[in-house]
Each structure stands twice: as structure tokens, then as C-alpha cells.
Amino acid sequence: MATAAINTVYPYSRDQRFFTRMAIGMAVFVVFAFGQWALRGMASPSTAPVWVHLHGVAMLSWLGMFVLQNQLALTGNIALHRKLGWVSLALVLFIAGLGMFTGRMAIELHRVPPFFSNAYFLALTHIGTALFAAMVIAAIAMRRETQWHRRLMMGAMILILEPAIGRLVPAPILGPVLTPVVEGAFQLFAVGIIAMHDLRETGTVHPATRFSALAVVVLFGVIMGLAVFPPFVSLAEGIAAAG
């Protein structure tokens, strides 16, 4: 019965409103987190390198595209949704490359938050960004499987909630170990909201939702492991020394 429930095919429009609201909610959350950070004087736009501003614009563009794509699915404009999907892919690849560059330059210019080690920040900005891009690519590859497609896209978005969550939790108090644990817990909570929706719709959690939860856990484990892996630590410190 569980297998049958997982494979149940139902019109995507039946519950697309949930995914659209989820997309809007996450976008608002990210904007709020970064907005309050700036209003508290924790950011210095005038001294930030140009690529940091470019990264911010690219991420805002992604948030807008993410919400728009869900809204188009809700209103039934699938033709435009599909066309913009290829634009989204190009944007994601640009974000991935720029995110890695920004992370590396933050280490080289000694702009890493003091409660993170260079190795942790290098892993976070490279592995996290790469996994985000990989999940988006997987979602696009499975675009004909709507239930997989939209859940993988949601999972990709949840993976990059970390910077926003990090601007709301008291990282200096929690420290370098508890901070990522709390951030990961928030991300798993977001996946849990989708899992509860799955249970209401089909009586079981969709495999793509399970995969998203696994991606959060794997990302956390890889980043924490690399942060203390001697060769990776040496690589990060070498980048810092080069600056």
C-alpha cells in the first residue's frame, strides 16, 4: 500500500498552491533575514567588494525566479514555466560559480566571520553551492516527473537557506559546532513541512522529500568533516596566507 501511495499520480494543480506558498514563504524569510542583518548595521555595503554585490543581485534574481516559476505553475502557464526553466538553469550555474569565487575571496581577503574557520567556510561555500546546483540540475532532468521535479526544486532552495538562518541565530554564542547543528535543524524543519504535506496528500512521504532531507544531512556531514580534514584545512589556510 505504501508503494502504491508513493506512485499515486494526481494532477499537479491539486496542491500547487502549497508549493507556491512554500516558495513565497522561503523567499520572504531570506529577504527578512538579510534585511534585518543590514538594518542592525552588521553589513557594510560601501566596503564590500563588487562581486559580493553581484552575488547578492544574483541570489535575489533566483528568489524572484523561484517564486515566479511556482506562480506560473499555479496559474497553469506551463509553456512559459518551461521556457524560464532554462533561464533558471543558466542563473543557477552562474550563482554556483560566483558563490565559490566569493567564498574563496572572502578567505583570501580575511572577511570570514570570526566564528567560522577558514576550512569550514571554504567547504560551506563550495560544497553547499555545488550541491544546490546539482539538485536543481536533477530537478530539471526530472521535469516530466512533476512530483519529483517540484520537491527537488524545494530541496535545492532549502539547502541555500543556511546563510539566511545564520543571520538570525546567535552564532557567536552557539560557536562553530552548535551553529551548523541549529542551522541544519531549521533546514530539516523546512523539509518536514513538505513531508507533512506529502502525508496529507498520499499517506506517505515522497521519495524526493526523503532525498532532500538526506541532502541536508549529507551536506552537514561533509562540511563538518572537511572542516577538520588536515589536507583541506591546509588548503584553506594556504588561500588565507595568499591574501
Automatic annotation (TrEMBL):
Lineage, broadest ranks: Bacteria, Pseudomonadati, Pseudomonadota, Alphaproteobacteria, Sphingomonadales
Keyword Membrane belongs to the record: yes
TM helices/strands, residue ranges: 18-39, 51-72, 84-107, 119-140, 211-233
Keywords: Membrane, Transmembrane, Transmembrane helix
Protein name (Swiss-Prot/TrEMBL): Uncharacterized protein
Domain of life of the organism encoding this protein: Bacteria
